[in-house]
Amino acid sequence: MTNIEKFLDMVQKSDNIVFFGGAGVSTESGIPDFRSVDGLYNQKYDYPPETILSHTFYMRHTEEFYRFYRDKMLCLDAKPNVTHQKLAELEAAGKVKAVITQNIDGLHQMAGSKRVLELHGSVHRNYCQKCGKGFDAEYILNFGTKIPLCDECGGKIKPDVVLYEEGLNQQTLEDAVFYISHADVLIIGGTSLAVYPAAGLIDYYRGDKLVLINKSTTPMDGRADLLIQAGLGEVFSQIPQA
């Protein structure tokens, strides 16, 4: 029995699956990740992406922040891929109880997943820092190179995205801990498991069906009950119609 066959068997037999995913879930939709050879961390800007995507940089150099953000983070033409679609199918079939994602692209919801916990927020939610009015991602994009301003009070608009130096939403974290700690099967896919506190969430898993699917090695490989070093699409495309 190959590892993929073992994985398919686990999925078939469980009705309490939680999926925890990172950038590798969306790379097959054309959205760049952060740490691969052609990811954001290897592209040339005046500042490294970690600096640009920090709270301090956003406050001090808002226009420069938005230039990078529009260019690299707003991938509004991206469409869900087979992994997003299969997860939505499995949820509709009562097998997947929650998708926990580090991504901010909204592709899980676009594919039809209902219970999505966004650890790092979403590009599709933006709010005026002065009056709190909400705006969609297109509104941000249509401001060109300028800082997006509220059409009611003129306040500065900030994406509902967790920047470096900012804390994660406490309720989202608590919900993620709940689903992971109660899961029968925990599938971790497309993440280097290098970003905390998100990576620490797997410590709450109590079961014996921890599946790790990633193209490259991660610090958690030794803890996996089933390790599949492959692209997510290659694995998920083999899941039969739920």
Automatic annotation (TrEMBL):
Domain Deacetylase sirtuin-type: 1-242
Main location: cytoplasm
Keywords: Cytoplasm, Hydrolase, Metal-binding, NAD, Transferase, Zinc
Pfam families xrefs: SIR2
SUPFAM superfamilies noted in UniProt: DHS-like NAD/FAD-binding domain
Binding site residues for Zn(2+): C128, C131, C150, C153
UniProt EC number: 2.3.1.286
Binding site for nicotinamide: F34, I104, D105
MF term (GO), any: NAD+ binding
Domain of life of the native organism: Bacteria
Keyword Zinc belongs to the record: yes
Cofactor note: Binds 1 zinc ion per subunit.
Catalytic activity: N(6)-acetyl-L-lysyl-[protein] + NAD(+) + H2O = 2''-O-acetyl-ADP-D-ribose + nicotinamide + L-lysyl-[protein]
Cofactor(s) the protein needs: Zn(2+)
NCBIfam families reported for this sequence: PRK00481.1-1 (NF001752)
Name by which UniProt lists this protein: NAD-dependent protein deacetylase
Taxonomic source organism: Roseburia intestinalis L1-82
